[in-house]
Amino acid sequence: MKSFEKVLLVMTDETDQSVINTAVAICRKEKSRLYVLFIIDSRRINRLGRKGRQKIDDIYRQAEETGWQLLYLTEDEAVENGVWTSLHFEEGNVTNSVNRYVESYGIDVIMVRRKDDMRRVFTDAPVSVIGL
Amino acid sequence: MLIKISDFLKADAIFMDIKATEKLDVIKELAEKMVAINMVTDRTAFMNALAKRENLESTGIGDGIAIPHARTNAVQNLVLAFARSPEGVDFSAIDGKPSHLIFLIASPEDKKSEYIMALAKLSRLLRKEPIRELLKSAASPNEILNIIKKHEE
Questions:
Q1: I need a surface site. Which of A105, B21, B33, B95 has the fewest CB within 10 A?
Q2: Across the interface, which of A61, A72, A86 has its CB nearest the CB of B116?
Q3: Within an 8 Å CB–CB cutoff, is residue A34 touching chain B?
Q4: What is the DSSP string of B91-152?
Q5: Angle subtended by helix axes A17-30 and A56-80, to nearest 10
Q6: What is the ipTM metric for this complex?
Q7: Mean pLDDT of B35-47
Q8: Is the distance from CB of B46 to CB of B31 less than 8 angstroms?
Q9: pTM of the model
Q10: What average pLDDT does range B126-133 have in this prediction?
Q11: Residue of A nearest to B2 (CA)
């Protein structure tokens, strides 16, 4: 059976509470350690900025604020459920960041919201990916 | 809801050079100081809530920063305290470095949104290296407050 000892939950600003709840519930059941990684996808933000509705700085600021809130929401939920967590905040390319974390922390399984723009995580990740 | 760190952090809860060098001793020292200025009503419950968090996660977020935190009814409002450690404290930070700037945040159980926003705001602010450097070299609690007021959005 696949080991769930170390789980990496990958979040972007499109992640919602249901993903957090599910990830924490699985980690609680499996007694896993939950590494939570919020990534500001620079390419996506630059794309949004070029469309010109909002300044890039404002989009970054908003994404950063959302990111930290999601991280602490996850941690709060995890602590309530007795799940060990480690929070991480990154800026850059999603696939590269995920692969680096998998290697650095010896991650067994990645969890990610299925609707996020995460196709590359599913296809390029060096470990199994669960879509939530 | 707009949260401003400077609305919650007061000069009498800023401790420029703490003596403790172990994580739980630092939290204990801060807790005692916070009890002394009536920010905390139940010292034991406060310590237990913070220790529970520390057992389940690392509150050292890297770059020399630690933000021990908890939701607990040992406080009546969102409270913040700041301590600076010249020697650095091992908060099991994600980058393995000792923490020199320590912000403690606590809120009552039912103030979750305010608490999450304060944590997010502070974490975001402290990602900026120039602000960390200013906080490290500040000479007084009022200077710490002014740096935060000036740089938070």
A1: B95
A2: A72
A3: no
A4: ---TT-PPEEEEEEEEE-TT-HHHHHHHHHHHHHHHT-HHHHHHHHH--SHHHHHHHHHHH-
A5: 40
A6: 0.89
A7: 94
A8: yes
A9: 0.91
A10: 95
A11: A65
